[in-house]
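Write out the 3D structure for:
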Amino acid sequence: MAIAIVVGNTIGAGIFVKPGRIAADAGSFPLIFSVWIFGTALCVLGGLCLAELSAMHPRSGGLYVYLREAYGPLPAFLFGWQEFLFARPASTGALAVVCVSSLYRILGWNTEAWNVVPLAVVLILAVAWFNILGVLWGARLQAATTLIKCALVLTIALLPWLLTLAGKPSVNLALLSETIAPEQGSLTSRFAAVLLAVMWAFNGWEGVVPIAEEVKNPGRNLPLALLGGIGLLGLLYMGATLAYHLVIPISEMVVKENREHVAELLLTRSLGNWAGSMMSVGLVLSTLGTINSNLLTSPRVTFAMGRDGLLPPSFGSLHPRYQTPMVAILAQAALACLMVFGSAALIQSTDYFRERTIFDLLTDCIVFAASLFYTLAIASLIVLRRKQPNTPRPFRTPGYPWTPILYLIAYSWFILMILAKQPIEALFGILLILIGIPYYLHRSYRSNLP
């Protein structure tokens, strides 16, 4: 189930919805595949570091705990603040919109933003209640939807080859060399733009560490879950990416009406219209699983903050019967609903965002804010090696100190590129983080916290 949480928390809509956007930004398959390899390697480096941290501090809260141990309460609070206030609610809201849009697409209904918002809100609240019923219920739903997600991505990855072996040639190697004029200018800007989409597809790979306190034998199972889950994700994503480009010309992927439906296009072209409709059904189930994962893991960070006195005490309380952090779960769900309404209003009322979708608007902001704290969390490994040298480490990061150093160099470059490429979204994320400082100071003063 721990591996299921890593994979299920990560596979959502990215590998199905982003390929067209990636193709438009990159313009060629070799660059696209190179970035997928790079993104997988980056997550493996991060996984090796978090494996040590999670094994030495197997407590609810994940990155919040490591940041607190390394830097003190303020950086830890700011991580939990952005998770609570923005990152996970925005992710949950974006996925709920994709889930409902896919359902509407199956039914032939209008998928304009304001048409999908009401049902997206209902969906978020329903999944939140399911997780209040108990962590085991949430984990069982996660295990079931993870099997469906893996089956979908595996089907995409293998289908062209299986059809070719069955005498129905679907693989066209010549398509791998096709190029188009990319929407991004320089090679570095293209690489960064593709990496932004790739890291959204990988967003959540650390999703098991917030519930470390509830994992049996964490010194063994957390490293296995992180590394096994990331390895499985990398293979699935690269296999699906190769399949897309072996069947669909890149010039068709970038057509506006195809950009978010490349997966359906592949199945429709390979097996017929019924298969494309089934892919839409699969996308509904896939995004449903990731919404569940968000509402299973992220409220544990909020719960840890409430238990530490950094949020009102009610956030650190458990339901008397179900023993789950009900207040934290409901708060995350309510904020996700607010994100859906707010992003729809921005798209409707401002010229800057008018050409964006709710999904793209929310996911681009999430990746930047999350990247800041991923970088700090990996750096905390170096800090804690010096600060807590005698703490038992059931797992030690191979290749230390080069493993965290390489990760930090790559991610620092990535953060700077996002800041240059999408300054408004990046500055919005920074602002949301910084407004947590006066709240923290107020809370610390009232509660006599350090």
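The CA atoms of residues 31 and 191 lie 7 Å apart.
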